[in-house]
Design brief:
The chain is an alpha/beta fold. It has one domain: Leucine-rich repeat, LRR (right-handed beta-alpha superhelix), CATH 3.80.10. 15% of the residues lie in helices and 21% in strands. It has five helices and 21 strands. The chain has helices at residues 45-52, 54-60, 69-83, 92-99, 306-320; strands spanning 11-12, 30-31, 109-113, 119-125, 135-136, 149-151, 157-159, 172-174, 179-183, 195-197, 202-205, 219-221, 226-230, 242-244, 249-253, 266-268, 274-276, 291-293, 301-303, 332-334, 339-341. The strands form four sheets. The chain has a ten-stranded mixed beta sheet, sandwiched between helices. Strand 3 and strand 4 form a beta hairpin. It is elongated. The two termini are 14 Å apart. Keywords: Cell wall, Cell wall biogenesis/degradation, Hydroxylation, Repeat, Secreted, Signal. One of its GO terms (biological process) is cell wall organization. It comes from Cercospora beticola (Sugarbeet leaf spot fungus).
């Protein structure tokens, strides 16, 4: 890591600006850098936007709610899911019991009006609730047909994830720091996702090619699993800004096609000891890139190309003289623990 590195400022992710369904007219939110997200649970972008938009919430949560059929359906789903929770260290279920059948008052549940004016369960935020002992996502995720985000960081979901092709509004999924296992859950890619966080689980085997053909994904966090095999090529419409694949068992080179991702801002692919080769030189010249971290990839050897050498110089300069305002983000370039040379 460059000397004198300072904590990086937060910067905007313009995911929300493209939403045209339930959560239209919501201000754009912000997210921490990918480096911070290696250890920190991100707050829901949608939840932050909803919280910031008091007029939207006031409109979406009238004093006298109609118990629409869809709310009755979602209430039944959540009650059935609650029955499977026998570990509840924060006593969240007591709040649910007190709220009764008014599901929009349940802790972790956000309601909003659909475009047709019907009140709906629009999001779930179970982050850090520590529910357990062995929860199943297929008892809740694919049953809430109107949700736009489902965040469940730091619980005890096990198994895999269900098919979400019926969830036409689902943009954010966060199951980080759970106990999910098996191969990458391809079914989760059947929703129009912009944000996918599966960090700190027990997934294995190869990363699917389909993941790197997605069009709208802006954030992919898959670090601290046991993914293996080669890094897939990216498709021509892949425009993901924040990618974290660190602390897996990936092998082979970083494909040259990754230099075609014009939206790339931060790439953390550290501590995959069997990744080989050098960083594709054109990747270092991408217009938006501010962080490249391949540290700990001991299989990477050779001299970096001229564009990466130039980027390394700029990152070193930023480390010694950090930007004094938030309009400029300090570049980071980390090749420690590799055989790469400048």
């Amino acid at each position: 890591m460059p000397r004198g590195h300072q904590k990086r400022s937060r910067h905007p992710l313009r995911i929300l600006s493209d939403f045209t369904c339930i959560l239209h007219h919501i201000p754009t939110s912000v997210t921490p850098s990918a480096r911070q997200l290696l250890t920190m649970a991100p707050r829901s972008l949608l939840l932050a936007a909803l919280s910031a938009s008091t007029s939207f919430l006031a409109q979406a949560a009238p004093a006298a709610r109609r118990q629409e059929d869809n709310l009755a359906r979602d209430l039944a789903t959540l009650k059935a899911f609650a029955e499977t929770i026998t570990e509840d260290p924060q006593n969240i279920k007591a709040n649910w019991t007190a709220a009764g059948d008014d599901v929009c008052q349940w802790a972790g549940v956000t309601c909003a009006e659909r475009p047709d004016g019907v009140l709906a369960v629009a999001g779930i935020d179970f982050n850090n609730y520590e529910f357990g002992p062995a929860l199943r996502a297929d008892l809740i995720l694919d049953k809430l047909l109107d949700i736009t985000f489902f965040h469940a960081n730091s619980n005890s979901f096990t198994g895999t994830l269900p098919d979400v092709s019926a969830l036409k509004y689902l943009y954010e999924v966060d199951f980080s720091n759970n106990r999910l296992s098996g191969m990458f859950p391809l079914e989760i890619l059947n929703a129009p996702l912009t944000f996918l966080d599966l960090r700190f689980n027990n997934f294995i085997r190869e990363l699917p090619e389909k993941l790197f053909q997605m069009t709208d994904l802006t954030v992919i966090f898959l670090n601290n699993n046991a993914f293996s095999g080669p890094i897939p090529d990216i498709g021509p419409t892949f425009n993901t800004s924040y990618i974290t694949l660190a602390n897996n068992n990936l092998t082979g080179p970083i494909p040259d096609s990754w230099a075609n991702n014009q939206a790339l801002t931060e790439l953390l692919i550290a501590n995959n000891t069997e990744i080989t080769g050098v960083i594709p030189d054109k990747l270092c010249a991408l217009p938006n890139v501010t962080l490249i971290d391949v540290s700990g990839n001991s299989g990477m050897t050779g001299r970096l190309g001229p564009k990466c050498r130039q980027y390394a110089k700029e990152a070193d300069r930023d480390a010694k003289n950090p930007p004094k305002d938030n309009s400029t983000i300090a570049r980071i370039f980390n090749i420690e623990g590799t055989g790469l040379t400048l």
